[in-house]
Fold:
Amino acid sequence: MQLTNRSKQVSNKEMTLAEKMYLPAIISGLGITISHFFRKKPTIQYPEVKKYLGPIYRGHHILKRDEQGRERCTACGLCAVACPAEAISMVAAEREKGEETLYREEKYAAVYEINMLRCIFCGLCEEACPKQAVYLRHDRMVPVFQERDEVIYGKDRLVEKMDDRYIRANNSEVDTTPTEPSLTRAAT
Amino acid sequence: MDLTVLLVKGLIILIIFVITLTIAAYSTYGERKVAAFLQDRIGPNRAGPWGLLQPLADGGKMFFKEDFIPAQASKWLFILGPCLAMLTALMSSAVIPFGDTIRFGDYAIPVQAIEINIGVLYIFGVVSLGVYGVMVGGWASNNKFSLLGAIRAASQNISYEIALGLSLIAILMMTGSLSLRAIIDEQATFFEWNIFTQPLGFVIFLTCAFAECNRTPFDLPECETELVGGYHTEYSSMKLGFYLFAEYINMFVSSAFIAALYFGGFHYPFMSEISGALENSLGVIAGHNVATAIGIIMFFAKIFFFIFFFMWVRWTLPRFRYDQLMNLGWKTFIPLAILNVVITGAGLLYDFKYATWVIAITMIGMVIVSNARAPKREVVRPGVA
Structure:
């Protein structure tokens, strides 16, 4: 079976004088390596420079608000059911009078927690959600945690901030994904 | 000798010592950078700007590692090994003339640690002592792999020293002196650089220098794939550091030696015109000193090029097999070097310096003829049955 046309038949044929002298081969080899010396390096200096990972990258979770700033989540629990790692848990509550500007529908999640050590970032919660409330944002990763009590993310860290709204941009011109919030908005 | 002369001399020795150590330390950094660049990587860049503090970090790491001496090892010889390697490596830069003279008052002091009239012989003596460091270390480790590495180092160095010496004899015949300064002064004009008069000798000398430094493609004493780590398998901490450091010092010294012997040392094209112009504009003493400084810079540029070349070759060529190494040394280089001596002598008889080009041209001709007569290699196309 032949996979590529780059294979070479090995032979024990006696070397010619030029091959025995090694020098022509050595010089051509040195030429090859020095051409690599001046080549542009493909390395991305990771912590400082981050590659744009595409508009479908699954990163940090976010609980979306609608255009009027009301939380979309109705605590139906479909995301928790869909989650293969059982990372999501929530407590539902009914909306009181006067809270119509806070919550979109009559029921909302009083507590919504994701255990980031369990989460495998599969995105099934995003697909299960009927209210388009939970998303895995493409431009930000869950930071590395040092302590065990940093692991469970509550609503304070999941709900979208009104001054830092998340838009899933399909922008091919963005080629890096900066971590600073100010840079994020400029990039998206 | 006057006190000021002594002082300036001491200062020069100190500076050469410091420069040797600094260059050796930064060769480790350079090696990693060159290796990275040749392999489309970036290399160390975390310690300081562009990773420039990397040698310090490496040295610090070496010092803090456990200094381990195997129970069955011969303890004092085990300690003596790296000391010998380091000592001999540091001694050999003493006779290399790094520049012309520095003038002040009535004095003219050569930029050289010691000027002796047997400089080449001195370097050869010290370099052949260098293999003792490897041998003693490998033997004292009481480890079969180390011993094999040491034996390889010894036989390889002995084999290649002959060809090294023979290729040098042609130069000594042309100069008529063993003093390195005399050899450099002989190459004052550009087309009398020994690279132009001794092309074959240069190739032999360069290859043998690689073998003497235990550098790839001749790094058989320490080849990881066959001998774990070779002669320094059992070494750790700064003892290992000394071995590696000695290797880089040797690389620096042999680069300097090659530059001095074949590339005119501190000479450069249009040197006399430039130094004449400088002396006219700056006065005799200041102009001469500035010209000397330019010469030193040129010499170091040549040295750095050869250090780079050592690294470049290391990351290009695979290692020779041991029988190939011995065949190359005994059956190719020694006869060629003897032929080189004979042809040079014949040329000198008629006062013609470029006689060895005859060998080079003959060899190129033979290659072309043999290539033309060789049967065309059939292009085997696998898959087309």
